[in-house]
Amino acid sequence: MCGVIGVFGHKEAAKIAYFGLYALQHRGQESAGIVASNGKVVHEHRALGLVADVFDEAILNQLPGHIAVGHVRYSTTGSTTVKNAQPFCVTHGKQTFALAHNGNLVNAHILRAELEKQGSLFQTTMDSEVIVHLLAKALRKGLIEAIKETMQIIEGAYSIVLLAQNKLIAFRDPYGFRPLALGMLNGGYIVASETCAFDLVQAQYLRDVRPGEILLIDENGLTSYQAVEQERLAHCIFEFIYFARPDSYIFGENVYAFRKRLGFQLAEECTLDTDFVMPFPDSGNYAAIGYAQKAGLPFEMGVIRNHYVGRTFIQPSQSMRDFSVRVKLNPVKEILRGKRVAVVDDSLVRGTTSRTRIRAIKEAGAYEINMLISCPPIKFPCFYGIDFPSRGELIAAKHSVEEIRRYLELDLLHYLSLDGLLKAGQGNRKRFCLACFTGEYPVAVQNALCKEIFEEAS
């Protein structure tokens, strides 16, 4: 996933970027970085860890300038090392560029091989570095033309902020897979993955960066270029289901309201005779509220979350996920003992996390456990920036709903139907990328990559 931010026209741009990244911390916990410029000199700081651990007042004071770009990383390509932390900073000729990328290129491995044959030297294993090399090759045509040419070559998901010495540029893939919003702050501009970053620094949301658009922000103000015409929209539906913060507006909609509608649709599809509705916090909270309200059932917090533990889904190893599950949620025995409960969660990916949680509820004394999932079964890998890259990791790819129910030791398991999901999203199937549910990919994946990843399920 990752979170990106760009700031232009604020005398302490790095500090604004820091607070924006703090609000975007849910989008990546592996590393954080900020690059700042006064228009002539560029300073950078990147490290592994959370935003508050990577930066302090002294470090931010060493990042002067009115322009800054920042990044929090959640790896889908490239290992978790400092060299893969972003923004990715390079000097070409007499100019310094810093790029922060959210998304995943599906043809990066092919482009990288071609660039290496032509003599390009790579410092990282990230697909983001491919973009920088392509830009450098075309810079003789001017920066905007170089970006346009690069956007014609790269395929997949990308929401990007780019610092180019005295300019800030934002550009987005023509399908609009990942969110990217534009705001205004004290006469300057701010670009971020989600509007929750604007709220923290009291910036005004203006609009989204349009799919296929390039925004150039410099001393002359804001200039827009439509670099690639969109064929269709393919907003990632999983942003609404899980990733984005509930107080954000993404793709023109409030996330909280969308998740409540998912709960309404669950209640339309599956009515239960149960004592109360409870979520697995925090990801199931808002669908559970919607379900309880629509079904006319009491809402309780049957498990309590330790908020000092990170999100389990985006941590890279299974051993870390299992440990976090045990530390993260603690059942309230007095509420659960002898009760029939309806547990609502946003999704089932691997199933291991949910199994541990359900056993904990059962051990706390729950008499009957029914589980409602506010999206359809995830059966196919994502090539656009979500960390379930092979079918072998997806429990629904190989098992029926009944088999999953037995594995999880549930009395009932119900997934929201695809039709129900689309109704919650105002019924427009062509607006979203649904590939993780249907296997229908908006951008074709290169055969070699596709074969390698799909074969892991065999």
In brief, what are we looking at here?
By secondary structure, the chain is an alpha+beta fold.
Q: Any chance you could write out the topology, listing elements then pairs?
A:
Layout: E1 3-8, H1 13-23, E2 31-37, E3 42-48, H2 51-54, H3 57-61, E4 67-73, E5 88-92, E6 95-105, H4 108-117, H5 128-138, H6 143-153, E7 156-164, E8 167-172, E9 181-185, E10 188-192, H7 196-201, E11 204-208, E12 213-218, E13 221-226, E14 235-236, H8 237-243, E15 249-250, E16 253-254, H9 255-269, E17 276-279, H10 285-295, E18 303-305, H11 318-328, E19 329-331, H12 333-336, E20 340-345, H13 352-363, E21 368-373, H14 395-398, H15 401-408, E22 412-415, H16 418-424, E23 432-433, H17 435-438, H18 447-454
Helix pairs in contact: 4-5, 5-6, 9-10, 9-16, 11-13
Label this structure with key terms.
single chain; 458 residues; alpha+beta; Glutamine Phosphoribosylpyrophosphate, subunit 1, domain 1; Rossmann fold; 2 domains; seven-stranded antiparallel beta sheet; six-stranded antiparallel beta sheet; 18 helices; 23 strands
